[in-house]
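Course assignment 3, question 2. Fill in each field.
Student: A.L.
Task: Predict the tertiary structure for the chain below.
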Amino acid sequence: MKRSAATAEPVLQTSNLGKRYRSRWAVRALDLEVHQGDVFGFLGPNGAGKSTTIRMILSLVHPTTGDVRLYGHSILTDRSRALREVGGIVEKPDFYLYLSAFKNLQAVGALNGGVTRNRVMEVLELVGLKDRALDKVKTYSHGMKQRLGIAQALLNDPQLVVLDEPTSGLDPQGMKEVRDLILRLARDQGKTVFLSSHLLNEVELVANRMAIINRGDLVIQGSVEELLNRGAGYVLLSAKPAAKARSALRSLKSIAPQVTEIEGGFRISMSFEHIPQLTSSLVRHGVAVHSVVPRRSLEDLFLSLTEAHSQIS
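Answer field:
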């Protein structure tokens, strides 16, 4: 059970966080709050400042302005205690390809004071790599290497796991494996996950809270459900015959201004309150309506917000 953001102190909080490279601000005045139990989606186009933010959170880059507090401790004044409960990967994880997954994790653990054999096997089992623990990493697929990177982040049993684009470059099966792993970390392990991504659908499937960043600025932050309810609505319509449906939809431009034919039917941008009018009109035109599925799109919300921000920034 996730704790309410209203009643729990943030486990991760950034205040006026910024990073400037010469005259360019990569991140500017960023205020984020992540609470215990969140799967927090950190969204933005490529180059928006996501990786720079994560580097500042993990104290790999010193901020130009502001601060990061982890479990109440500042990374600027109390770095060791701030990072004690945090594990993470930034962009593509690197490994010794000629060593096994087990040996790679042992080597990483040794840098942090040592790690037991049992703990190495525990994290490999958690990410679904126990059966390949003794295989050389050079034999691993890209998806397996991504999961090994997450295993590396979990070695010290952190409470907050920070993942930078963990599904980048994966095929659909690899993306599903990483997505399922993130859900297990939150649901079964009680971890808080901070997930950076530009893949909107992935975030929509796993996150309960999110923030959108564009050109280094925070655009919006809040509950995924609440933000989706603010987003543009559309309807997936399956109706036959297609020619009659097409003709009927052309006569409904006032309530359905944007209609796109897709495989198996139509995608119609419209307000949900007009769905009864839509269906009755289709029936009057002799169209057999098989299904009308209302949806809200995180992609539509994301694009509308980032485009509006780009125009004023």
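Instructor remarks: Confidence is low (pLDDT under 50) at residues 1-7. The domain at 12-221 is CATH 3.40.50.300 (Rossmann fold).
Grade: pending
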